[in-house]
């Protein structure tokens, strides 16, 4: 428990140094006034209903609501505009699909994200699923129609043959947003996704001689990272027998291990969240001397799956915390009891037991340092009268190859 308190203290202390990510931007109020300042860049996954603004670095932040801003922008990165539009609320989840091919519209006032500016503007709205809208020459904003539905007289199942698609957005583009024959030919294969639609609208505007700013920023860097992570661990182990009142505490021992971590950075919220998996091999030797000598050479293969959150200090420097659920596999490990200069007269087989793992660390460019603590686990759980407690904390150095 004391180690867990140390971990929590370090986590709360270090996080205090992390930078709050306010960036240059502006918003337009209901009177049409452009208000310059700093806006907190959350890199929203769902379209926001408000945003944090402050006049300068030393000013207090204020929450600007949807009703109070016609638009806002983080310069050279993103722009949101307030519009009243018809949002399709049809579900794309199989269990909630209907046989109606037509969108179910609900008129809402929302912040639409501007992806492409120009003669034809492309917007997106995301709330559990992506919806796209377009506008030509400041006319009405129109939803691009795309809906999946169950075929008439079909049973709901996971078979793709029962799912049909209303892809009327292709006809809309053919009729209203096409500049030449080459563009029209591509519409047939155009997917209802951000990248292909963004590229299409860009090319349409270029064809019309309008080359204004592309607002959807390009995601930089690789989302997949591989790192080598050698480590030093401090392990504790004690066990007892509830029938014979036999009790042993093998104390704290230093062990060594090496892991390979695969990390996938999620493409939203400024890449602050990631999923991690780290296959790791560890070894630690326990020994208790006395009238009866006890030895345990503990070899384990650990496989933690978890989530990580970053607190950015600058472009190269960041603090992180992570939590994982760890699968443990003990390899040919047992506890041996022996008297002086004799063979072991008794042994207990050590079994695998899973547990939770928490870590806090610092990453500079490709170099990583991490402190990690795990909850205790019972490795003698197959024995009715034996109880055990194996604990571990690790100090990890790492290098990220990509």
TrEMBL record:
Residue ranges constituting the Outer membrane protein beta-barrel domain according to the UniProt record: 222-373
SUPFAM superfamilies registered for this protein in UniProt: Autotransporter
Origin superkingdom: Bacteria
Signal peptide: 1-18
Name the record gives this protein: Outer membrane protein beta-barrel domain-containing protein
InterPro entries reported in the protein's UniProt record: Autotransporte_beta_dom_sf, Beta-barrel_OMP_2
Keyword tags: Signal
Alphabetical list of Pfam families matching this protein: OMP_b-brl_2
């Amino acid at each position: 428990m004391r180690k867990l308190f140390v971990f929590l203290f370090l986590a709360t202390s270090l996080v205090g140094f992390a930078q709050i990510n306010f960036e240059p931007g502006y918003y337009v109020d209901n009177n049409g006034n452009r208000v310059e300042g700093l806006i907190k860049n959350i890199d929203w996954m769902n379209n926001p209903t408000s945003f944090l603004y402050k006049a300068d670095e030393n000013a207090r932040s204020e929450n600007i609501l949807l009703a109070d801003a016609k638009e806002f922008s983080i310069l050279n990165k993103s722009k949101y505009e307030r519009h009243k539009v018809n949002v399709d609320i049809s579900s794309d989840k199989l269990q909630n699909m209907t046989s109606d091919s037509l969108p179910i519209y609900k008129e809402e006032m929302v912040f639409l994200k501007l992806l492409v500016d120009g003669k034809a503007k492309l917007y997106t709205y995301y709330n559990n699923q992506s919806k796209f809208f377009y506008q030509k020459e400041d006319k009405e904003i129109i939803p691009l129609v795309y809906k999946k539905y169950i075929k008439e007289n079909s049973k709901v199942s996971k078979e793709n043959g029962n799912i049909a698609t209303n892809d009327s957005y292709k006809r809309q583009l053919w009729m209203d947003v096409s500049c030449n024959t080459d563009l029209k030919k591509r519409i047939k294969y155009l997917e209802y996704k951000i990248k292909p639609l963004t590229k299409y609208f860009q090319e349409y505007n270029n064809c019309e001689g309008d080359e204004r700013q592309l607002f959807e920023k390009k995601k930089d860097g690789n989302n997949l990272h591989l790192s080598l992570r050698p480590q030093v661990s401090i392990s504790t182990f004690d066990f007892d027998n509830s029938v014979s009142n036999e009790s042993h505490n093998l104390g704290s021992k230093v062990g060594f291990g090496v892991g390979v971590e695969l990390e996938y950075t999620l493409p939203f919220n400024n890449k602050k969240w990631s999923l991690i998996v780290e296959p790791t091999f560890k070894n630690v030797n326990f020994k208790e001397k006395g009238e009866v000598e006890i030895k345990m050479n503990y070899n384990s293969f650990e496989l933690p799956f978890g989530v990580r959150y970053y607190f950015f200090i600058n472009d190269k420097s960041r603090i992180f915390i992570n939590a994982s659920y760890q699968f443990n596999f003990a390899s040919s490990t047992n506890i041996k009891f022996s008297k002086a200069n004799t063979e072991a007269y008794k042994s207990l087989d050590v079994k695998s037991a899973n547990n939770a793992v928490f870590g806090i660390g610092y990453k500079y460019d490709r170099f990583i340092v991490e402190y990690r603590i795990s909850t205790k686990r019972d490795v003698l759980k197959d024995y009715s009268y034996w109880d055990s407690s194996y604990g571990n904390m690790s100090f990890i150095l790492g290098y990220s190859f990509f």
